[in-house]
Amino acid sequence: MLTDLTLRDFVKELGSSSPAPGGGSAAALAGALSSSLCSMVASLTAGKERFKDVWPEMQEAGETSRQLTEKLIELVNQDAEAYNRVMEAVKMPKTTEDEKSLREKAMQDALKSACRVPLETVETVAKVARVMESLLFKCNPNAITDVGSAGRLAWAAAHAAAYNVEVNLKAISDLTFVEETRKKLQFELSQVEASAIVAEAEMQKRLS
Asked: Where are the domains of the chain?
């Protein structure tokens, strides 16, 4: 599995001529980095005596972040697997009408899966962004730039994953699926953007 590779080997594989892993896996990894930063910030706040009033919130934020990180790591692998299923469908025979019909069904099923995985990445990153925003005003101020970095990574992760949803939606013939997926995507993306804007504004205020 991709996530069993060393960081150096993963980056090498990402930069190779192989189309998977690609942008969707990179998006999930960026989301996991964002979530991990949130976990670190929570850990740097919980247990410190001067932040005692927010220990329960920080402990909860840390646990939630760790769970979200694990989910996003899974999505790194799942995105590459979804792409490979599309490629398998593309290679199916298409000589007879029956073969063409079977191939088209397999293609449509694979494309839907290739939409669902990056959509789940966006949904998961939206949860990370909410944790990030909850840390912003209560965490150890020495770690505030790490919260800001988490916000930037979340924004990048969500948008990169969204590109992968949109490109696959273009080839799907089920218009109801397309409409519902795009609606969910825009809602979750707007949630990430809203949290990222709040984080950026607070960061600029603190840094100035």
From this structure: 21-207
